[in-house]
């Protein structure tokens, strides 16, 4: 068995730098002179501009890496996420108002001794409210634009369960800074021309244009759609799930708030469209919106037109 001492991560962005920082902290390479982590990314890799919503487990990830929550909120344009609000995903109410429902992060066991799920068929008529409102105060907190914690609540703890909305570009830069300056990760900016393989088909090094060969014992592909190792090197075929997941295209637009003191939506807003849905993520200084759709049922131009009509209706 060969001991893994040199780990090479291909690709930066949120995925690459999260892997680098997490491994560096877990392996404590800053105090281990024999173990090295190197992240290699292209000098002009494009930013996709999505991935701005997270799951509550992000809190434990950031805490484990050693990132101060206050610094994270300030540097990455962060707002609290308390779930998702689905708008118009089923028929309108009888009075013609929009039909909406919440998927909150607060779970039944935090306020109920026994989960009401198995008994909801019998309870819903007596309670006369949605399941989300019955099991938690979080939907009402979202409607009132309340945060899941106070200024006195300790870092990464909350009165209600929460995650984050964040600026993905700023987040990647913060992770890179923490990984390289505090955790000992080596960063190389270079074009990867190809991977070199041994006689058994294992990757031994990356041939780069600017830095020559970069050797490693273990390689992680975080190059996204480029698939520098998974696709270009090993030619692993793309597996379509079109028979289960109909949407296959997306358009993203960043939008300003209508005024500086506009309230920030705590849930991610997901509004159904004719062939997909529009997401709306409220950050501190802007909104991140986008349209996920199926090009089998709508043209790219019409999908973009629906997205551009949506922000004006919100403002």
From TrEMBL:
Keywords: Oxidoreductase. It holds the Pfam family Trp_halogenase. It comes from the Bacteria. GO terms for molecular function: monooxygenase activity. InterPro entries: FAD/NAD-bd_sf, Flavin-dep_Halogenase_NPB, Flavin_halogenase. The keyword Electron transport does not apply. It comes from Microbulbifer aggregans. The lineage of its organism: Bacteria, Pseudomonadati, Pseudomonadota, Gammaproteobacteria, Cellvibrionales. Its EC number is 1.14.19.9. The gene is rebH_5. This is Flavin-dependent tryptophan halogenase RebH.
């Amino acid at each position: 068995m060969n001991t893994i001492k040199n780990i090479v991560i291909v690709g930066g962005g949120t995925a690459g730098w999260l892997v680098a920082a997490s491994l560096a902290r877990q392996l404590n390479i800053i105090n281990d002179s024999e173990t090295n982590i190197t992240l290699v990314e292209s000098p002009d890799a494009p930013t996709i501009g999505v991935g701005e919503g997270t799951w509550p487990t992000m809190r434990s990830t950031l805490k484990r890496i050693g990132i101060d929550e206050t610094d994270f909120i300030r540097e990455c344009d962060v707002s609290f996420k308390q779930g998702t609000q689905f708008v118009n995903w089923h028929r309108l109410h009888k009075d013609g108002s929009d039909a909406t429902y919440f998927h909150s992060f607060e779970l039944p066991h935090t306020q109920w001794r026994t989960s009401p799920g198995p008994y909801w068929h019998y309870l819903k008529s007596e309670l006369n409210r949605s399941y989300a409102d019955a099991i938690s105060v979080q939907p009402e907190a979202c409607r009132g634009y309340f945060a899941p914690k106070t200024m006195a609540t300790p870092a990464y703890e909350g009165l209600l369960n929460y995650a984050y909305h964040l600026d993905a570009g700023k987040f990647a830069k913060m992770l890179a800074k923490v990984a390289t300056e505090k955790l000992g990760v080596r960063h190389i900016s270079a074009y990867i021309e190809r991977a070199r393989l041994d006689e058994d088909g294992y990757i031994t090094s990356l041939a780069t244009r600017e830095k020559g060969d970069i050797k490693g014992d273990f390689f992680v592909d975080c190059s996204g759609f480029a698939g520098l190792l998974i696709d270009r090197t090993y030619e692993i075929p793309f597996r379509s799930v079109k028979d289960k997941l109909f949407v296959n295209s997306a358009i993203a637009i960043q939008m300003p708030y209508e005024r500086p003191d506009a309230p920030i939506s705590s849930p991610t807003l997901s509004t159904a469209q004719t062939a997909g849905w529009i997401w709306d993520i409220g950050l501190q200084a802007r909104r991140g919106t986008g349209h996920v759709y199926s090009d089998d049922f709508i043209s790219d131009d019409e999908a973009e037109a629906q997205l551009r009509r949506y922000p004006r209706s919100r403002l």
